[in-house]
Design a protein that fits this description.
The chain has 115 residues and is mostly beta strands. The protein contains no helices and 11 strands. It has strands spanning 2-6, 9-11, 17-24, 32-38, 45-50, 57-59, 67-72, 77-82, 91-98, 103-105, 109-113.
């Protein structure tokens, strides 16, 4: 099982980034996919999630209206489009897959928002 995140980096406040998470080794379409983030010295928490096959989404209040989660079950990939980024969005972002009886985590990708 692998979850490989990409797309992180350094961006100025107000900028955008698109994170991707490529999954392999499990039946992607049967898993709820989510993005979490963790800043230094703080706990990891849920940013956005998307179910399958309905595609229902949920977001942390802090990112509503700025971030959009989506998935492509034909490519086994989940995305996080992040717009209007703020310095407080700086964190390591982790991809998470939750099935009926198991879950998987990626290694994370760093997002830094700074001028």
């Amino acid at each position: 099982v692998q979850l490989v995140e990409s797309g992180g980096g350094l961006v100025q406040p107000g900028g955008s980034l698109r994170l991707s998470c490529a999954a392999s080794g499990f039946t992607f379409s049967r898993y709820t996919m989510s993005w979490y983030r963790q800043a230094p010295g703080r706990e990891r928490y849920l940013v956005a999630g998307i179910s399958s096959p309905a595609g229902s989404t949920n977001y942390a209040d802090s990112v509503k209206g700025r971030f959009t989660i989506s998935r492509d079950n034909t490519k086994n990939t989940v995305y996080l489009q992040m717009n209007s980024l703020k310095p407080e969005d700086t964190a390591k972002y982790y991809c998470h897959a939750r099935g009926r009886i198991e879950e998987h985590w990626g290694q994370g990708t760093q997002v830094t928002v700074s001028s």
